[in-house]
Amino acid sequence: MDQKWGLVLAAIDGLPTLAQVIRDHDLVAKKALGQNFLLDLNLTAKIARAAGDLTGCDVLEVGPGPGGLTRGLLAEGARRVLAVEKDARCLPALAQIADAYPGRLEVVQGDALAMDVAGRLTAPIKVVANLPYNVGTELLIRWLTPAVWPPFWASLTLMFQREVAERIVAKPGGDHYGRLALLAQWRADARIVMTLPPEAFTPAPKVHSAVVHLTALPQPRYPADGAVLQRITAMAFNQRRKMLRSALKGMGPDIEDRLQATGIAPTARAEEIGLEAFCALARSYT
Ligand code: SAM
User: Fold this and answer.
1) Who contacts 136 (Cβ-Cβ below 8 Å, separation ≥6)?
2) For ligand 1, is residue 132 a contact (CB within 6 Å)?
3) Closest ligand 1 atom to the C-alpha of 64?
4) To test ligand 1's pocket by mutation, which of 43, 60, 84, 86 has the most ligand atoms within 8 angstroms of CB?
5) Which residue among 21, 90, 189, 286 has its CA within the 20 to 30 Å range from the CA of 63?
6) CA distances from residue 277 to 39, 221, 271 in whole angstroms, order as listed
């Protein structure tokens, strides 16, 4: 660390430390915006590295806040970062970062759920975000279900509550396995690359967090119509304790025959069935 102009400067980029940034801009965390900030720039650089090689990539960051992860992404060599932040109080702190990395950071203020900024980026595009978990899950579902595949992004590196991260990477047979696992794993490789204790954040949340890295597959892992697959998995997991022949009654009177023809025991439960078999069942309707 450097001592300069009475400020404590961070070794990573010579900008003020994040604790200083928060003091300077009076960024008292707002619960309603899910603000749990990462103040350790070594940690944010590590998360940035979890997104893989960033040189030659545009990065979409959602929810930069005071900019810890943004600084990690820029210091790790991202060609350009487009950051979408809802809280206008963060803009001056982010402007300071933009000045330190001329031409490489653009900040857009607004609700990431209400805007589509992908068109402003140039491929290859990586998405990196530390968001409130409900916003993160909603965006993940949108990013996994575009009308056309492959999507605009090459990879997603996203922070979630650990329990949500486990649901994304879950395999058949456990309580975590469900629609989110099937949706994610149908079109992407998904793995947990880091887990973080509550103390890594300021203020500390109640639960552990985890970073999930998803890489888009060039095409879905098994052929299936996305809408049919989603309808089947929604129905199957809405009544996950029921046998599939009754949980999937809404798919038509011949469901038992279809299950049998696909090699799925009609008495099995949703959580026992793998992605390949769900896709085969979906194909029987097209
Ligand atoms: N990336 C920063 C970090 O790691 O320290 C901040 C993370 S904090 C968990 C979540 C950030 O997302 C906050 O800055 C919050 O204002 C922002 N945010 C919350 N909802 C948002 C939304 N719908 N669109 C864009 N940003 C949002």
Assistant:
1) 129, 158, 159, 160, 164
2) yes
3) 1
4) 86
5) 189
6) 44, 12, 12
What residue ranges of the chain are covered by domains with CATH 1.10.8.100?
Answer: 226-283
Strand-pair partners of 243: 269
What type of residue sits at position 246? S
Report the separation in Å between the CA atom of 188 and the middle of ligand 1, taken as the mean of its atom positions: 24
Question: Do you find a cis peptide bond into 203, omega within 30 degrees of 0?
Answer: yes
Whose tokens are 């129905």? That residue is 235
- Whether the CB of 64 sits within 6 Å of ligand 1: yes
Q: What is the CATH number of domain 226-283?
A: 1.10.8.100
Distance CA 117, CA 3 (A): 38
- Domain(s) of CATH 3.40.50.150: residues in the chain: 2-216
246 CA → ligand 1 middle, Å? 42
Decide whether any atom of ligand 1 lies within 6 Å of the 135 Cβ. Answer: yes
Tell me, using a 6 A CB cutoff, whether residue 22 lines ligand 1: no
Atom of ligand 1 lying closest to residue 63 CA: 12
Per-residue pLDDT 10s for the chain (286 aa) are: 444 455 677 778 889 999 999 999 999 999 999 999 999 999 999 999 999 999 999 999 999 999 999 999 999 999 999 999 999 999 999 999 999 999 999 999 999 999 999 999 999 999 999 999 889 999 999 999 999 999 999 999 999 999 999 999 999 998 999 999 999 999 999 999 999 999 999 999 999 999 999 999 999 999 999 999 999 999 999 999 999 999 999 999 999 999 999 999 999 999 999 999 999 999 999 9
Second CATH level (architecture) for the domain 2-216: 3-Layer(aba) Sandwich (3.40)
